[in-house]
Amino acid sequence: MKLTKYEHACFTVEKDNQVLVVDPGNFTTDFISPSNVVAIVITHEHSDHYDHEQLEAIIAENPEAVIVAHPSITQKIEIFQTQPVLPGDHITIGLFDLTFFGGEHATIHPDMPPIANIGVLINDLLYYPGDSFVRPGVPVDTLALPVGAPWLKINDSIDFLRDINPRLVFPTHDAVLSDIGKSLPDRIIPGLVPDATYQRLTGPIEL
To answer: Are 158 and 171 in contact (CB under 8 A)?
Structure first.
């Protein structure tokens, strides 16, 4: 599979000319939809992960693509094909096996009502928790690790990474950080979790 990381929390996975898009939100300005998208996974309803204009652009190029998300999102979408999922569900779309975990967004502040959030494991290989640190409880080869958010402390990212113990980890959810700010987790995390290969992705890689 080929993994391509875009700004903030968006990435794609491609296998045999089929593409899965994950979290194309409004903080992602560098994403241009390919013409071979079979599904779009949305982890939760915040606009930096779920942006209607981004979805419209993707569906315009890929009218058969399916939007996969929690029912709190799919019930609001009327004009596109959707597949509602809950934690514990396992589905297959095209060449992608998807297993879902979690259920709730990490706490930003106790006074803010909680919302649904799902983590996703792609082809038993790549895990992304959305806006949470939910552990999947299964082996993970490649981890998308949130490193910058109002709900996040770096020690939580580090403990999450240590618990999962992947072969490869790449930072995500970091549009809220300046270039200098991004250099901080890039410097701290590899030194504290040396067993995982930490790599900031600047172009496509093969998994």
So the answer is: no
- Residue 17: which of 98, 128, 96 has the closest Cα? 96
Q: Can you give the residue range of the structural domain that contains 170?
A: 2-202
Cα(9)–Cα(135) distance, integer angstroms = 18
Domain count, the chain: 1
Please tell me the predicted confidence (pLDDT) of residue 56: 95
pLDDT of 50 strictly over 90: yes
Return phi, psi of residue 89, to 5°: -75, 150
**56 in any annotated domain:** yes
Contacts of 66 (CB under 8 A, 6+ apart): 38, 39, 40, 81, 82, 83, 93
Q: What is the pTM of this model?
A: 0.96
Q: How far apart are CA 48 and CA 62, in angstroms?
A: 21
Please determine, for residue 79, whether its predicted confidence score (pLDDT) is greater than 90.
no
pLDDT for 99-125, tens place per residue?
Answer: 999 999 999 999 999 999 999 999 999
Q: CA-CA distance, 160 to 192, in Å (whole number)?
A: 12
